[in-house]
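Thread: Modeling a multi-component assembly for a lab meeting

Hi all, long-time lurker, first post. My supervisor asked me to bring a structural picture of a complex we are working on to next week's group meeting, and I have zero experience with this. I have the sequence lines for every component (521 residues in total). Could someone generate the structure of the whole assembly? Inputs are pasted exactly as I received them:
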Amino acid sequence: MNPLIFTTILMTVLLGTMIVMMSSHWLMIWIGFEMNLLAIIPILMKKYNPRTMEASTKYFLTQATASMLLMMAIIINLMHSGQWTITKVFNPTASIIMTSALAMKLGLTPFHFWVPEVTQGISLTSGLILLTWQKLAPMSILYQISPSINLNILLTMAVLSILVGGWGGLNQTQLRKIMAYSSIAHMGWMTAVLVYSPTLTMLNMLIYIMMTLTMFMLFIQSSSTTTLSLSHTWNKTPLTTTLILITLLSMGGLPPLSGFMPKWMIIQELTKNSSIILPTLMAIMALLNLYFYMRLTYSTSLTMFPSTNNMKMKWQFETKQITLLPPLIVMSSLLLPLTPMLSILD
Amino acid sequence: MMTYIVFILSVIFVVSFVGFSSKPSPIYGGLVLIVSGGVGCGIIVNFGGSFLGLMVFLIYLGGMLVVFGYTTAMATEQYPEVWVSNTTVMGVFLLGLLMEVMLVLYVLKSEEVGVVFKFSGVGDWAIYDTGDSGVFSEEIMGVAALYSYGAWVVIVTGWSLLVGVLVILEVTRGD
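Re: Modeling a multi-component assembly
Sure thing. I ran the full set together rather than chain by chain. Output:
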């Protein structure tokens, strides 16, 4: 793609999300979502093969349906309250429709079916933008309407998302699908605590974005999209096998890595609000996630995966330089001692 | 009948939407879009927005739909699909028509209808002259406000249109 056009379109994706996050008028928020959706389609379709086109079409259809539902909820809210500000949603019907629309945009169960298919059909860099940047805008709207969200619906969607994200990722060997199911599960964790403490949702979003960025950049550096090609990294850059191990364990939520921080805080906040069964179930279902991360580490860093002998003597081509990778790796594994700093967020 | 003109227009609006969303060939979809655009303009004019209604005719029907018609005429196939040619299309069209007819009968028969919002019978669509927006018409003031207080909206919409053109060119390049 022409670099100037590509920059313009990428800036429009950023502008769309910025408009969503900083507007106080519902119509502008909807315009921001549409601008974001419109501009990300050519980014998803960077290579012109049928798979990317199918993935982009699926993404466009689901997100456009979600935008339509959002517009309907906005209009119902307008009819019952007569004003367009987003501080509070005045009608329960509008609130439910809005929650469903934003859940469709995020990829929560039962609207999660597009996430693995779209993520698998596009390149690694586009998948990176899809799973990190595109979650910011809907989550910011959920944050802003969090006092008026119906708790039952949100918690049901959250718990089912954690279950589907863990269970669905078990049978996958394609790395992009694994990251997609991991995204579904993390979105479930984020929305579970949204009504109780939106600050923790933002914390979880921050740490999730850091860890997902790290994982995707490690995949991009070794150009691997399947478990099999990831298992050859010991031959290309042996250091990244250790980094993959640490980052994957952090994504699984193991202490003393930073991925433990959001899970710990969320479980603490939920138990403070006298719900015991729910965080227990969520913690148990996070084990499913941990299982397929462990399987990746097993094949990548802990064992030498079986391969033919000529795969064990690879030519050392120039390695890709990914500038942001070392700080990201440090942040996605070593942030746990900074947990007391959460008090500044209140 | 004149009291219920907005209701009748809105029914024709929904029927023409059903007509093109049952996916005949784009030429026939464009035909039905013309009808729905005209009827939508009628609804807006009935609420007092004469400027916006005529804008719909001028820009939407006279600009965008004409361009759409020409491009579809360039890309048309030898036997375009009508509503009665394909069983699926006809089935979806009839189903949409059936649902609209049932909704209209529901509205006509019962005292009060509460689907998502309540409206009590056909008369709710009628225009009552409240007399509040007397001296200045609300809709022309809205257009004026768009270009003064709403400058940010104009910038955003203009930028969206520009990026829309760029995106469409990129997507259809196919190379």
